[in-house]
């Protein structure tokens, strides 16, 4: 792929998509504290489920999932099962209970449940750390797409993406983020599925349901790349289970995911929103292995160089028109922006609500807290941008680091706090 060539049709598709995101943010401007933090607690379960899925299906899911499967084959299925299994844990153990507490943030719950300002302080720091690490991976995805479509330098792409996402998060808070995430889900799932049908058809596989038809592609790879279909991969069963478990508890411990349950009117809607969210997430995760298998056949030796953009690489190598690649890029940007919006809201909430208001200035007015939150959003967004200029690893690997932190910290604290009355 040529990095410095402007691709006109994809650029137009992406430009329209970005303008739409900012417009939704402008139309959702808020000053009210409840609307800024928890969208007024008036998001219905279907809409919340769509926002949960969009919030979740980051660049790591849209781009990174297929890339990991492309590189690791069978072993990469641990990411699919781990990330979706975490929502089952949330549904069974946490969703309705979290909503019943009626707080704003994850550190809010920790501080009140354990009667400890120190615990709240530590939870806020951990939330900031998780949001920071997770968002670095999303920024990398944004940078790669801007670079590929607009022919921009990678670093300039990161700066441009930062400006766009900050513009609508600062304007509209959680209300605008949720509304944008509903739009972004429609964009990303359409962008992900439509090219898949045509790639399968071009390659001669069963294209009506390519998620089933790619089995023939896997059979071909068994001959040419047997390691791709080797059960548990080269790492073995223990590593596969360990990774799957880590991602599962990490998912259930992510602060920006937990915060979603405060947006719905009641506990029943919290549970229902998880079911809808899991359904919407499952549509994409059911399709990622097909993209990986098709990409492996079309470009068997691409390696890490193409892993994070294998879905676009597969569309190009299959001979699809350029606008298909533009649609995929718009979907990837939607996925990354939707998650970054949620992460910046979680991080700014930890900064303004849990640290500034909760610990340092309890007398702060609602307007002052919103102002501090916006300042925190800018600081966090710029700090993430600096690290993303020279990212340390692949998108999926960076994100997996955030899951490990959440699984070791937030998840056990929440589960014990909800289910064991003697936990201190």
What labels describe this entry?
424 residues, mainly alpha, globular
Topology, please?
Blueprint: H1 8-27, H2 33-38, H3 45-56, H4 59-72, H5 77-101, H6 106-113, H7 117-150, H8 154-203, H9 210-224, H10 237-252, H11 255-258, H12 267-298, H13 304-307, H14 310-317, H15 322-360, H16 366-388, H17 395-408, H18 410-419
Helix pairs in contact: 1-8, 1-15, 3-8, 3-12, 3-15, 4-12, 4-15, 5-10, 5-12, 5-18, 6-7, 6-18, 7-8, 7-15, 7-16, 7-17, 8-12, 8-15, 8-16, 9-12, 10-17, 12-14, 14-15, 15-16
3D architecture notes:
- There is one protein chain.
- With 424 residues, the chain is mainly α.
- The chain contains 18 helices and no strands.
- Helix 8 packs across helix 12 (267-298), helix 8 crosses helix 16 and helix 10 (237-252) packs across helix 17 (395-408).
- The protein is globular, with a radius of gyration of 21 Å.
């Amino acid at each position: 792929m040529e990095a410095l060539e402007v691709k006109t049709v994809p650029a137009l598709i992406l430009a329209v998509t970005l303008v739409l995101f900012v417009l939704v943010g402008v139309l959702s401007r808020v000053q009210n504290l409840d609307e800024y933090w928890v969208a007024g607690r008036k998001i219905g379960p279907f809409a919340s489920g769509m926002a949960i899925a969009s919030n979740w299906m980051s660049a790591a899911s849209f781009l990174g999932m297929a890339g990991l499967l492309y590189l690791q084959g069978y072993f990469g299925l641990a990411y699919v099962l781990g990330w979706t299994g975490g929502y089952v844990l949330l549904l069974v153990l946490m969703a309705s209970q979290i909503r019943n507490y009626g707080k704003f943030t994850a550190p809010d719950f920790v501080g009140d449940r354990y009667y400890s300002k120190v615990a709240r302080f530590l939870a806020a720091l951990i939330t900031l750390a998780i949001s920071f690490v997770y968002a670095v991976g999303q920024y990398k995805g944004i940078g790669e797409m801007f670079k590929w479509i607009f022919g921009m330098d990678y670093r300039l792409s990161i700066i441009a993406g930062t400006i766009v996402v900050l513009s609508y998060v600062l304007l509209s808070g959680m209300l605008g983020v949720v509304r944008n995430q509903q739009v972004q889900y429609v964009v990303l799932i359409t962008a992900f599925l439509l090219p898949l049908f045509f790639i399968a058809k071009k390659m001669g596989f069963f294209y009506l349901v390519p998620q089933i038809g790619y089995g023939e592609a896997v059979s071909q790879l068994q001959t040419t790349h047997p390691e791709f279909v080797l059960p548990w991969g080269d790492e073995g069963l223990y590593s596969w289970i360990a990774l799957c478990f880590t991602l599962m508890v990490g998912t259930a411990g992510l602060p920006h995911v937990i915060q979603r349950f405060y947006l719905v009117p009641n506990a029943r809607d919290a549970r229902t929103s998880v079911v809808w969210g899991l359904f919407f997430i499952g549509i994409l995760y059911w399709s990622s292995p097909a993209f990986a298998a098709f990409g492996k056949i079309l470009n068997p030796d691409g390696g890490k160089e193409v892993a994070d953009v294998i879905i676009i690489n597969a569309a190009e190598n299959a001979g699809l028109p350029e606008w298909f690649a533009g649609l995929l890029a718009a979907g990837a940007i939607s996925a990354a922006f939707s998650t970054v919006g949620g992460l910046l809201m979680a991080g700014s909430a930890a900064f303004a609500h849990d640290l500034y208001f909760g610990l340092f200035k309890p007398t702060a007015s609602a307007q002052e807290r919103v102002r501090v939150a916006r300042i925190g959003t800018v600081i966090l967004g710029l700090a993430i941008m600096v690290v993303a200029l020279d990212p340390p690893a692949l998108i999926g690997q960076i994100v997996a680091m955030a899951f490990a932190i959440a699984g070791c910290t937030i998840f056990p604290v929440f589960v014990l706090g909800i289910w064991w009355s003697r936990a201190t």
